[in-house]
Amino acid sequence: xxxxxxxxxxxxxxxxxxxxxxxxxxxxxxxxxxxxxxxxxxxxxxxxxxxxxxxxxxxxxxxxxxxxxxxxxxxxxxxxxxxxxxxxxxxxxxxxxxxxxxxxxxxxxxxxxxxxxxxxxxxxxxxxxxxxxxxxxxxxxxxxxxxxxxxxxxxxxxxxxxxxxxxxxxxxxxxxxxxxxxxxxxxxxxxxxxxxxxxxxxxxxxxxxxxxxxxxxxxxxxxxxxxxxxxxxxxxxxxxxxxxxxxxxxxxxxxxxxxxxxxxxxxxxxxxxxxxxxxxxxxxxxxxxxxxxxxxxxxxxxxxxxxxxxxx
Length: 312
Description:
Elements: H1 2-5, H2 18-21, E1 22-24, H3 30-36, E2 43-48, H4 53-68, E3 74-79, H5 84-89, E4 97-102, E5 105-111, H6 116-132, H7 138-151, H8 155-168, H9 173-185, H10 189-197, H11 201-204, H12 207-225, H13 229-238, H14 243-255, H15 259-272, H16 276-292, H17 297-310
Parallel strand pairs: 1-3, 2-3
Antiparallel strand pairs: 2-4, 4-5
Helix pairs in contact: 4-6, 7-8, 7-9, 8-9, 9-10, 9-12, 10-12, 12-14, 12-16, 13-14, 14-15, 15-16, 15-17, 16-17
């Protein structure tokens, strides 16, 4: 893993969503919003309080220059009154206090209100610092290698790399999801289930992990239906409105990798009787889409077909 993610991580591309450039945070999310985020671009932290007059002057100015930087830096605002433990840990003795973090450590800062020109210079220094370290982090590069190995069907290599990433970052959601997917791909559903049972509720909400959880659920359901596809198809041929058989066949087909056929089976149920079994067809389609991911071409095509039926 040292060859993959050794050394200090580099910052990522400067671009960022406008909504993510400036945010309010607290001591519970400090590690995520500041330390983790600073692995990509410098993060400025503005410690303030509602009663602080200079804070009211500094706040709008620093937000302005951060927006002008267009993603080269980010700004996190923390109310010291509501986060006294964090303020004490960082030894904030007077406000406004501004710290800048890059690659997980403080690199610059000042105390007290500053004129706009000096704030702009401060942000420009940080932007240059971030630009000098641009490029994917070693962890990101390792994850890309693991995903490539997974796509090529080399689940052993993918598992090894995902596991090495977790040795360095035990809560890395992409690596957790990757290991779960590898276990599913090799038929180790019990192992996949055990991995998911060991993660926190917060990590379970991560889109990558949620997708892996959906894949596991579908794989378990497909395993139960395995070997019955001919029997299920015969029931459908005899009675096209045997929705239970069609539903079970869709689950089995999805588990077998026949995703388009599985989606079509559920769409057929929805088209004939969308309310069947408390909208089971639509709900299962949503699970299919979650398992495949929002950008998968099959998800996009399936959502379009579902939408056309819903609003026809």
